[in-house]
Fold this protein.
Amino acid sequence: MHPHGATGPLVAALDIGGTKIAGALIDTEGRPVVRSLRPTPPGGDGETVMRAVAEAVAELRAAPQWSAVVAVGIGSAGPVDALHGTVSPVNVPGWRDFPLVPRVGEAAGGLPVVLTGDGVAMTAAEHWQGAARGYDNALCMVVSTGVGGGLVLGGALLPGPTGNAGHIGHISVDLDGDLCPCGSRGCVERIASGPNIARRALESGWLPPAGTEPTAAAVAESARGGDPLAVASFDRAAQALAAGIAATATLVEINVAVIGGGVAGAGPVLFDPLRDHLSRYATLSFAAGVEVVPAKLGTDAGLVGAAAAAAQGLGLSGFVAG
């Protein structure tokens, strides 16, 4: 028996983003049994950020349950390169082709390490323990500061060769649309991310309620109150998401689209127009009827998914969706 009722092996998981570095030991039920958390050093050079990661790992290693850990899974903001074990996250400027996998392997005492993008990690989590559970073909999306995603096809996570497959945020849905920071035009992310929902509302003349910051959450609040400018900005985001989901359904055949991230917290303000637009874009018999549902796992999705993706990549039993 392992302490604290954890049964069987554990996977150490890291969820690395622009604001925080979260760590946990995840059991075969998808529960975090030990946690660690560090802020991502803002504007830090590569070694400074790595030091915070190493501290998070050291804190996990100090737990008595560490003896049951068989692998380490990392879900990182992208782009990631799982082939070479490197990361170049847009929001961690100090890391460009940073050799994260060997460095985490060192910090973790030589355990096997599996790296995936954060969208793929969230997808692994939702398929194993969340809203995509029981579906063999699913698209999962994170709509927040950026728009990421991942795919489950034929019952298995599809990370792609470098760990970035399913990155729906950078499908172009507006051919001559705004230039996206990625270099393309009219990307889903450029239209549907939280900051872009707020930007578009402000540009149209929307004003946030007195004393609140002009965020997507504030736009959602106004939209719930019937403000037509706020409603229009969410409708445009919903249209972009619908076009991306329809393209995906047409390309690979999915049964469900799971949407998480802060913007999904807007609820019906996003989901109602999204389902409406989807019925107009996904029209072929095999693409129509894709269910659109909110994600279930919230802030732990990155950790749970990093563990699940590592377990699938290494063929560990007990951690993979049945």
User: Anything to note?
Assistant: The domain at 131-295 is CATH 3.30.420.40 (Nucleotidyltransferase; domain 5). Residues 50 and 103 are 8 Å apart (CA to CA). The chain has two domains: 3-117+300-314, 131-295. The two ends are 24 Å apart (CA to CA).
